[in-house]
Design a protein that fits this description.
alpha+beta; 2 domains; six-stranded antiparallel β-barrel; PilZ domain-containing protein; cyclic-di-GMP binding; PilZ_domain
C-alpha cells in the first residue's frame, strides 16, 4: 500500500526500548468513525459526505473478509461460515434500507486509509479541523475489535487535490488494553506483509 501523506511523529531518541512499541506505525485501511467530542453521537457528523450504498457494502464486508484472510483454512469447512455470510447479507440489507428511508440519521464507520500507531492516528478527512480540536474516535481493528478513544488534532492541512484535509491526531484517552490491541494489530500486520513479500520473491 502506498504510504499516506499523514505521518505521525518519529521516535524520539530518548524513548526507552520498552516504550518504542507505542511508536510503531503502519499505513492501513480500517473502519473509522470520528466527530468533535462536542457533537451529538446520535446523528451524522456535520461536513461528512452522506453514507452511500457502496460505503455500507464495504463496511459490512470488511470484518468478514479480514477474518477469512487470517483464518480461511480453519473456517473453510466450518458450519458457522454460511451463518456469518447470512448475517452479513441481512445486516447489509437492513443498513441499506435505513439509508434510503432515513438518510439524515444514518452514519456508520467507513473504510478509511489511515496511518496508525499506539500514540495516534492520521487520516484524510472531508472536514477541516483546527489544531487542538478533540475528536471522539472509533476504530474497528480486524477482524472486529472496537477501540473507542479521544484524540487531539495536532495538524490539519489541505491536501493537494483541495477536496480533503490531512489530519494527524494524538490519542488522549486510550486505555492500556486498547493501546495493546492497536500495537498487536500493527505487529501482526507488519509480520503478515513481510511474509507476503518473502513469498512473492521466493
Amino acid at each position: 500500500m502506498p504510504r499516506s501523506s499523514t505521518n505521525l511523529p518519529s521516535v524520539p531518541p530518548s524513548v526507552a526500548q520498552d516504550e518504542r512499541r507505542e511508536w510503531l506505525r503502519i499505513d492501513d485501511r480500517l473502519l473509522l468513525e470520528y466527530r468533535l467530542v462536542t457533537e451529538p453521537a446520535d446523528r451524522p457528523a456535520p461536513g461528512v459526505p452522506a453514507v452511500t450504498q457502496d460505503m455500507i457494502a464495504a463496511a459490512v464486508a470488511k470484518p468478514t473478509a479480514e477474518l477469512l484472510a487470517r483464518n480461511g483454512e480453519l473456517l473453510a469447512g466450518s458450519p458457522i461460515l454460511p451463518w456469518i455470510m447470512k448475517v452479513d447479507w441481512l445486516l447489509e440489507v437492513m443498513l441499506k434500507a435505513m439509508a434510503v428511508l432515513h438518510p439524515e440519521s444514518m452514519d456508520i464507520a467507513r473504510v478509511t486509509d489511515v496511518n496508525i500507531s499506539g500514540g495516534g492516528i492520521g487520516f484524510a478527512s472531508a472536514r477541516r479541523f483546527e489544531s487542538g480540536d478533540r475528536l471522539s474516535v472509533k476504530i474497528i481493528l480486524p477482524p472486529f475489535t472496537p477501540v473507542h478513544t479521544v484524540a487531539k488534532v495536532i495538524r490539519c492541512a489541505a491536501l493537494a487535490n483541495g477536496q480533503a484535509f490531512d489530519v494527524a491526531t494524538q490519542f488522549e484517552q486510550l486505555s492500556a488494553d486498547d493501546q495493546e490491541h492497536i500495537i498487536q494489530h500493527i505487529i501482526r500486520t507488519q509480520a503478515e506483509r513481510l511474509r507476503a513479500r518473502r513469498q512473492q520473491t521466493a
